[in-house]
Each structure stands twice: as structure tokens, then as C-alpha cells.
């Protein structure tokens, strides 16, 4: 974010890998879905599981369309995946990443609007929110179906957050934060003023930067301080201090 970028009013946060730790449940649920379809997920290069890992962050139905082709088969696989994932969630296998809840609360206390997004279906997203007690934590939650059906790496969910909340006058007043290359691409394509990656999920710093991350953080817990430091008010205060210091010399 450069000095002319407007203050961030809207923060769009990914869930699994960014604010939520699911302990590899995506891979477990995918394996169950693949077996439901009569396939073995595999584990080596060019396997189905390898593709799933590479496309973490993408809408799950899009992943199944790539793997199974025909729409009916993709929908069947997606339903099996969602059912398996929901069962794992019900088993208490999800948790908030350290500092995630506090981060969202701090962002809201700073006057920012927070939206949680996911590549999962609405029923799965709601199951995760319920398991964490986060039903009323964010200002808005979105899944691909809420944005016309297209998930990441398309910008649709980010732009839907922009339109539905109405708190920003310019897409540069948005921050998009996630743990995957697809999160970064969706933020860049939406024209967000800040696109930041976190290292608590699927992809490493190089992958996040190559996909457009302007900042790479250790975790989402570092975000409130970063946004406070980048705010125009903070920069103006620092400039005034620097000017006074220089004159005093």
C-alpha cells in the first residue's frame, strides 16, 4: 500500500488456514469424496490429492469440476466432500487460529468492517462458524454461492463484500487477507488497496508474493498493527513528528 492509498475500511478475511485451523480436514474430506466416487486420492505428484493441495483456496466445486469433468459427477463429489467435512467439524476438529478472534474484534474496534469468506458451501461455512461460536463475530460471511457461484481466484466474493457492506467508497479501501495464492489473486483482481498473505495455511511466502501479496505476515494476529501503521492518520502524525524533529535541529 503506497502513501496515497485511502485508509482501509473493509477487511475481507479467508477462513480455513487464515483464521481457522482445521488440522488437514480438507484432505481427509476430499479422500472420502474421492472414494465415494470410486477413485483413490493418491499421494504422489499428479495425483488427485496433489491437485487439491495445489488449489487450496479455490472454490471446492471448481476443483471437483476439474477432477471429474461432468457437472453431475462434480456435484456428487462436492456433496460427498461437504458431508464428510461437516461430520469432521461436528467431531470438534476445528479451532480458531491463535489470535484470530481477537484480531477480528480489534479490527472492528478500529472502525473497520470485517467479512469472512470461504471456498466451502454455505452449510459447511455455517457449521464451522457454529462450532467456533462465531455466528455473530464478523459483520458478514460469504461463500461462492453468495457471489453468483464463482469463488476464488475470481474477485467476485471480494467485490460482493464491497457492494453488500457499502462501507468503502473505493476498492482501494479494501484489504484482502488469506493463506493461499488464490486468496492473493482474488484480492489483486478486485483492486484491493492491500493484499496480504499469512503463513499459517497452505502456501509459503514465495507463492503468496508471486500471486500478488504486498505483505506476508506470520499470522493474522499481526494484521491490526499493520493496518494501524499504514493508516493515513498514523502517516500524518509521523510526518508531523519528523518535521518537528528536523526543525528542532
UniProtKB/TrEMBL annotation:
Q: What is this protein called?
A: Phosphonatase-like hydrolase
Organism domain of life: Bacteria
> Pfam families recorded for this chain?
Hydrolase (PF00702)
Which InterPro entries does this UniProt record tie to the protein? Answer: HAD-like_hydrolase_sf, HAD-like_sf, HAD_sf, PhnX-like
Give the species.
Answer: Streptomyces prunicolor
